[in-house]
Amino acid sequence: MEGWETKGPGVPRDESDLDSRTRERFEAWRSGDAASAARLFELHHDFLVDLVERELGPKLRSRLEPQDVLQDVGVKLLHYEPKPEDGSVERFRALLKKMTRHVVTDLHRRFFEADKRGGGAERPLLSDSRFGVDPPRGSVTSPSRVFERNEERELARVVLHFLPADRGDLIGLRSWYDVPFATLRERFAADETALRMRLLRAMEKAAAVLAKVRSALPRMDEADRDLIRLRVGGDLSFGSMAALLKSTPIEVCSRFQLAMRRLGKLIDEPFRPLPDDWPGCLLSSSESA
After folding, report:
1. Residue 127 placed within a domain
2. Structure pTM?
């Protein structure tokens, strides 16, 4: 982590130097360099430490460590699409404050409002399949079977990163949690008939992407393929992956996103970063929709 002399908590002596380094790394991030987002996070680490301490509150502090919250904010940052106006120190720190408050709100909901969540039992997400083996014999004759067969679950996790939110999140809520269509009407602003048609089209798209993913994975760099397999095959959080790889969650998230973007180029599909706790986070957001 980079350090600098300070006049107070998180306030560098040379503000102009901090601003220039912030803008430089922010622009590199906007240009597609996810590693620059991680470096930007480290540049403002001291500011974030103080911010998390202020926002956390005694109830959450008794349940988890501030460092865990800090890493959640870093991962959330990597999922953000940077806007040109966010590049100054003032605007970037305002963005960090907003993300921190969102993370703290989500943590409050997770720890203290669990009884309000629901909408169906979670299905197991793990499978015995691995990317290095041949595809299962026989073809997928129905798009919905892509998410019903255990041997497809691992690849399905990859595919969902290449579907738009109104398709991928619908699949997540229906195929992982069996959330009723009646519950989903308000969230997706559509009636049940339209949602059923949307789900069918989403499954058809997923089946097409699945075929391209299966063809592209053997052509990927082995390190990228192993990182993707570790994330989706083991259903691991970035925190768990960081412990295994002796790294940090934000660095692992950055590497995973780069690997997935390279896969996206191979299959000609745009990559959509998913939250670290996807699809579980969809339940609480569905409740509040």
Report:
1. no
2. 0.60
